[in-house]
């Protein structure tokens, strides 16, 4: 029977593989929360790789991406267009009889468009972009402030709160050097270090180690033995909401090998699909060599290591213990009348000899 750690590892990895596969039944709306410290582009690329492996149509709605990413079937430029035009272009590109994945590189322009009077509200707009055969993957930049809107109601929830409520899966991306620095600080009972804008220092926008920088990783892993390939990847903080409403959370490490090929808008879909790498194999963050706890090997008898005193017996003590015949052993032997099992046998010794009747008479 597998132990608790093995069951947790198997269950969590199967859940991540299910969510990374672009199936609407698994997660209709996946929200990526990134920042200047760690962009969501490596994770979006992993979604595209798995979508092409499952023969899913990939539609990319771009507001800040200039070139068509590798493996995308349809690339739509949304900058300068209204909501109705974007909805028409998306509806013409998404097939109705085949599973598809709609990727939005940033939600900030859509949020600004939904705040205008002719446009529908944000929940209605996001619902109209998805369908029973289409899963929505959108990115929200947590460190970019939203402009004030004239329709803002003081009693209505904020936009980040609303997005957290609408999404069925939330994935927060962290830089590996920053996560390692926070892990080492927690091991020493120290506060987690701040990076980038969180440092609140004038002129600092991005901290060392942002997006897996080598210099920041070298400082975070100082004095540690770094295995090959352990520094190339991102940290994922996953929160998935099941249909019952129960949330499941886990921390993962996703390797992100560099792509050697680059795509242009003139390349064909078949050519781009042939250049896509294999899907990355994610692991739990606790299983990462830099985050896992060192195993303490106990040499010799475990009973000796359990305390400061010796609990074992010597060979002479063991032989003496085995040679002792306890009285209840003879009582369990057969040969007596039925029902006489469990008798107490007592043999009188020299000190027990005497005239008991005379003593009783004296009393």
Overview of the molecule:
The chain is of the alpha/beta class and 363 residues long. Helix content is 32%, strand content 15%. The protein has 13 helices and nine strands. It has helices at residues 4-20, 41-53, 83-93, 108-114, 122-129, 159-166, 176-187, 214-220, 269-275, 302-305, 315-323, 327-331, 356-362; strands at residues 29-34, 57-62, 74-77, 100-104, 134-141, 169-175, 233-241, 247-255, 283-284. A nine-stranded mixed beta sheet has the order 3-2-4-5-1-6-7-8-9, with helices on both faces. A hairpin with a 5-residue loop joins β7 and β8 (247-255). It is elongated. The protein starts with a helix and ends with a helix. Residues 259-273 have low confidence and may be disordered.
Give the arrangement of secondary structure elements.
Elements: H1 4-20, E1 29-34, H2 41-53, E2 57-62, E3 74-77, H3 83-93, E4 100-104, H4 108-114, H5 122-129, E5 134-141, H6 159-166, E6 169-175, H7 176-187, H8 214-220, E7 233-241, E8 247-255, H9 269-275, E9 283-284, H10 302-305, H11 315-323, H12 327-331, H13 356-362
Parallel strand pairs: 1-5, 1-6, 2-3, 2-4, 4-5
Antiparallel strand pairs: 6-7, 7-8, 8-9
Helix pairs in contact: 7-8
Give a quick summary of the entry.
The protein is of the alpha/beta class.
Q: Please, what is the average pLDDT? A: 78
Q: What is the strand tally?
A: 9
Structure classification? alpha/beta
- Specify the overall morphology: elongated
């Amino acid at each position: 029977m597998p132990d608790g750690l093995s069951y947790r590892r198997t269950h969590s990895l199967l859940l991540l593989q299910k969510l990374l596969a672009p199936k609407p039944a698994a997660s209709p709306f996946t929200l990526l929360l990134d920042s200047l410290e760690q962009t969501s582009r490596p994770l979006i690329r992993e979604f595209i790789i798995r979508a092409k492996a499952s023969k899913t149509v990939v539609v990319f709605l771009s507001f800040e991406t200039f070139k068509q990413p590798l493996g995308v079937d349809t690339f739509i430029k949304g900058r300068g267009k209204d909501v109705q035009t974007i909805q028409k272009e998306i509806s013409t590109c998404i097939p109705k009889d085949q599973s598809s994945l709609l990727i939005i590189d940033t939600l900030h322009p859509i949020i600004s468009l939904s705040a205008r009077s002719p446009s529908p509200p944000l929940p209605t707009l996001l619902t109209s972009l998805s369908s029973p055969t289409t899963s929505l993957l959108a990115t929200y930049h947590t460190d970019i402030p939203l402009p004030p809107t004239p329709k803002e109601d003081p009693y209505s929830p904020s936009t980040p709160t609303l997005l957290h409520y609408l999404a069925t899966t939330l994935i927060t991306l962290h830089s590996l050097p920053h996560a390692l620095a926070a892990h080492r600080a927690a091991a020493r009972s120290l506060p987690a270090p701040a990076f980038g804008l969180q440092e609140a220092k004038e002129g600092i926008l991005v901290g060392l180690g942002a997006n897996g920088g080598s210099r920041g990783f070298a400082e975070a892993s100082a004095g540690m033995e770094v295995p090959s390939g352990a520094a190339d990847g991102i940290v994922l903080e996953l929160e998935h909401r099941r249909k019952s409403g129960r949330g499941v959370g886990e921390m993962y490490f996703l390797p992100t090998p560099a792509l050697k090929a680059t795509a242009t808008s003139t390349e064909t879909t078949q050519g781009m699909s042939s250049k896509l790498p294999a899907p990355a194999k994610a692991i739990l963050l606790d299983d990462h060599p830099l985050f896992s706890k060192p195993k303490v090997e106990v040499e010799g008898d475990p009973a000796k290591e359990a305390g400061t005193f010796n609990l074992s017996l010597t060979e002479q003590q063991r032989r003496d213990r085995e040679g002792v015949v306890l009285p209840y052993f003879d009582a369990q032997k057969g040969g007596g009348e039925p029902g006489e099992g469990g008798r107490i046998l007592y043999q009188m010794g020299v000190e027990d000899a005497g005239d008991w009747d005379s003593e009783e008479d004296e009393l």
